[in-house]
Design a protein that fits this description.
By secondary structure, this protein is α/β, with parallel strands linked by helices. The chain is 50% helix and 11% strand. It has 3 domains: 183 residues, no CATH class; 215 residues, Rossmann fold, CATH 3.40.50.1820; 101 residues, no CATH class. Strands 1-2-3-5-4-6-7-10-11 form a 9-stranded mixed sheet, with helices on both faces. A two-stranded antiparallel ribbon has the order 8-9. Helix 2 runs antiparallel to helix 3 and helix 19 packs antiparallel against helix 20. The two termini are 35 Å apart.
Length: 665
């Protein structure tokens, strides 16, 4: 059966719209997922020359794929692929290569712009983490959705129950898809590093690790001490500390309180910083005007913000959080509530987080069995966020048999440097001092004054950090003399939470007004000058896509902030209705003079925009949902407008057969 010309054009236009939507998705998500090459053998590595972007520019490197068994304990295990990058040493002589182990859990190991600080005389090797960087990624959209859909906060009782169920659903879904979750352990991650070391031909390697990555470094030293020369651990996380001890957290607040008393600007605002924050948390407002504040969201973000003292982490740093409690008022708390819900649920790959964190599941169970928080400043919220409370994900997630041997500190003779920040809320150096250092026969520890978690080490005095690490790797000596105390910038908050609150409200309401103004201008110009030309019409529709799309989305955002706190501000139900309506009306008003309206024209344009917005938003996650929803709405509306215009032009150019017959007669 042959298609008519009209139908062929319809199909062609639909194909073009679909292709554009797919291409727009690929622009935002380039697919660089490694694949297992056909016929590849386990523990095989293939590399090709490439470059790697660092803070000092592109560096010569080798990039490739390591193929490993998903579960080395299972002879019938399927294979997975992991990315590998070797950034080559810049000059001779070349010392032991440095394998980097980033933090998390649930974060990539392939992003290390600071690598250039270590490549003067060392190769730097990045091996992707299984479950995050590899061909199988343990995403749990069920968990993200549960965290984003809490009406009372991410760690309210109802939210904790929903999150725990979501972890169970995710585990069941992944296992039904053939994923062996017991293969995603720290021990098997170490064996991936060993496979890479052997394939690259290295006799021994050095390690530089941070935060949760230090746990992998410990397991590496315990399993393969002969493969390591030296290990430098930054922000050390000993066994049993993949959650926050509230007493230690309060002692860290006490340090900040002492620093506040010594700072004239801070001391003028409070005689006791810890008590002020405790009182503010205990009397958290539920609203800022009509806008809903979620108490536990504020607590969780406060814990994360206190990890860093450096301005490079703003607004997620301690001075900004402290300012929110001293000067911010309810507006600052509302901003923290919103930012927490936007940023944290999508901050990690939850399936890999759960698999790795099962190392500390017995410690978490014991913590909750003993009553959990004893009444600390921030309470249980942050630990609940990670573990899901007393009935947390560890009740549903499979525990790998690999974990049993690595839940307590073991002795090690590997030469090891422990680096901690004095003010680190995430991995307080006292834990490493008391629990890990005594087990290191050749261990050294440096506690850097005024620094917080890992980012502070890399940001503050880069040359000092480089000197400390390279001197240790090259000679075994520990020289932290180039570091100085980083002061806490109590009065140097570049963008306060109160200002962020004003920006959020201002941009949202302003975006609505701008969109309405654009619609008004389209109506006025059409009445005054008539319909634009085809060329002008297309330009107008392209240029108004963003302001109209935001004007359609933002009313939904305001609705969630005021009347529907259980809806996530970037959920399709929030994005699609307004975006489709406003973009559809805008496209209809901007149609060309070759496309006259009818009583169904506006409805058709809106319907096309709604369908496109729905398809686009379903292709996105997080804040990419409204982006793709707007793109999809524009494509859908323009498809309808262009299709109607083409049909109208065809009808106008077809010969009047009746008139032609009369002339012939």
């Amino acid at each position: 059966m042959r298609l008519s010309l009209s139908r062929r054009r319809t199909v062609a236009l639909a194909g073009v719209a679909a292709v554009l939507l797919v291409l727009s998705t690929l622009v935002f998500w380039p697919d660089d997922t490694p694949r297992v090459p056909p016929g590849a053998a386990p523990d095989s590595l293939r590399l090709d020359a490439c470059t790697y972007d660092t803070e000092a520019g592109a560096r010569a490197a080798d990039c490739g794929t390591l193929v490993v068994a998903e579960n080395r304990a299972n002879p019938a295990s399927s294979l997975i692929a992991l990315p590998v990058v070797r950034i080559r040493a810049a000059a001779q002589p070349v010392g032991e290569p440095i394998f980097r182990l980033g933090g998390g859990p649930g974060l990539s190991n392939m992003e290390f712009p600071e690598a250039a600080r270590l490549t003067d005389h060392h190769d730097v090797v990045l091996v992707g983490y299984r479950g995050v960087d590899g061909s199988r990624r343990l995403d749990c959209p069920e968990v993200t959705s549960a965290l984003q859909s809490s009406s009372d906060g991410m760690t309210s009782p109802d939210a904790l129950s929903a999150t725990s169920r979501a972890f169970g659903k995710c585990a069941n879904r992944l296992q039904r898809a053939g994923v062996d979750l017991t293969g995603y352990s720290a021990a098997q991650r170490v064996e991936d590093l060993e496979s890479a070391r052997k394939a690259l031909g290295y006799q021994r390697v050095d390690l530089v690790s941070s935060s949760a990555g230090t746990r992998t470094a410990m397991v590496y030293a315990w399993r393969h001490p002969g493969a390591l020369l030296r290990s430098a651990m930054i922000s050390v996380n000993p066994p049993g500390h993949l959650f926050w001890n509230p007493r230690v957290t309060d002692s860290q607040f006490a340090q900040y309180a002492d620093l506040c008393r010594a700072d004239a600007a801070c001391a003028a605002k409070t005689p006791d910083l810890g008590k002020t924050i405790r009182d503010a948390v205990a009397t958290m407002p539920s609203r800022w005007g009509p806008l809903s504040i979620k108490d536990t969201n504020v607590r969780v973000l406060s814990q994360y913000a206190m990890h860093h003292n450096g301005p490079g982490s703003a607004p997620n740093n301690a001075p900004t959080a402290i300012d929110a409690y001293l000067d911010g008022g309810p507006g600052a708390k509302w901003a923290m509530s919103v930012l927490s819900e936007v940023a944290l649920p999508t901050s990690t790959v939850w399936g890999e987080f759960a698999s790795f964190a099962m190392l500390d599941a017995p410690a978490a169970r014991q913590y909750y069995a003993q009553g959990g928080d004893p009444g600390s400043i921030l309470g249980n919220a942050s630990t609940d966020f990670l573990w899901g409370g007393p009935g947390g994900f560890y009740t549903a997630w499979p525990d790998s048999p690999d974990n049993a041997a690595y839940r307590a500190v073991q002795p090690s003779a590997v030469e090891t440097l422990l680096v901690g920040g004095e003010l680190d809320f995430s991995t307080p150096p006292v834990n490493a001092t008391n629990e890990l250092l005594p087990a290191l026969s050749r261990g050294h520890q440096v506690v850097l004054p005024g620094l917080g978690h890992t980012n502070d080490f890399w940001e503050h005095r880069p040359e000092a950090g480089k000197h400390l690490l390279t001197t240790f790797f090259d000679t075994g000596r520990v020289d932290s003399s180039q570091f100085d105390r980083r002061p806490v910038g109590f009065a140097a908050v570049p963008l306060s939470m109160s200002a962020i609150a004003g920006l959020l409200v201002g941009v949202t309401t302003g975006g609505v007004l701008v969109g309405l103004l654009v619609l008004g201008l389209l109506v006025r110009e059409r009445r005054r000058r008539g319909a634009p030309s085809r060329r002008a019409s297309r330009w107008i529709r392209a240029l108004t896509m963003v302001p109209l799309g935001l004007a359609g989305w933002f009313p939904g955002v305001l609705f969630t902030w005021t009347l529907a706190p259980g809806w996530f501000l970037a959920a399709p139900v929030v994005v699609v209705p307004g975006t489709g309506l406003v973009i559809g009306l805008g496209a209809h008003l901007a149609r060309s003079r070759a496309n006259p309206g009818s009583r169904f024209a506006a409805a058709a344009a809106v319907a096309g925009a709604l369908v496109g917005a729905l398809l686009g938003s379903l292709a996105g996650t997080g804040l990419m949902t409204p982006v793709l929803g707007i793109v999809g709405a524009a494509l859908g509306a323009n498809f309808v407008v262009e299709f109607r215009g083409r049909r109208q032009r065809r009808e106008n150019t077809e010969p009047d057969m009746g008139r032609a017959g009369h002339l012939i007669a």
